[in-house]
Design brief:
Number of domains: 1
Structural class: alpha+beta
Number of strands: 4
Largest sheet: 4 strands, antiparallel
CATH class: Alpha Beta
Helix content: 25-40%
Shape: globular
CATH superfamily: Ribosomal protein S6/Translation elongation factor EF1B
Strand content: over 45%
Distance between the termini: 12 Å
CATH topology: Alpha-Beta Plaits
Length: 94
């Protein structure tokens, strides 16, 4: 198992409940892939450095996980097809 930081930005037009549902869905997907969520942080609404998909700000979330590469690949796949996630990044922590 490797350590990863998964950061994703949810579009700001969603209501709070829908935003939290996106987070819950991501956590469920990771847990189904046998990933262990070490910590999670709701960073809150922040301004983006540049406009992404027509949005100037977004709701940031950071998850630190212990996972196999397959679990991270599944997160990447889901984040790419989920229209509520406007940007994401995966960083491997040594």
């Amino acid at each position: 198992m490797r350590n990863y930081e998964l950061m994703f930005v949810v579009r700001p037009t969603l209501e709070e409940e829908a935003t939290l549902n996106v987070l819950a869905n991501i956590k469920t997907i990771l847990e189904e892939q046998k990933a262990k969520i070490v910590s999670e942080k709701n960073v809150g609404r922040r301004e983006l450095a540049y406009e992404v998909k027509g949005f100037k700000n977004g709701n940031y979330f950071l998850l630190v996980v212990e996972a196999e590469p397959a679990a991270v690949k599944e997160f990447d796949r889901i984040a790419n097809i989920n229209e509520d996630i406007i940007r994401h990044i995966v960083v491997k922590v040594d």
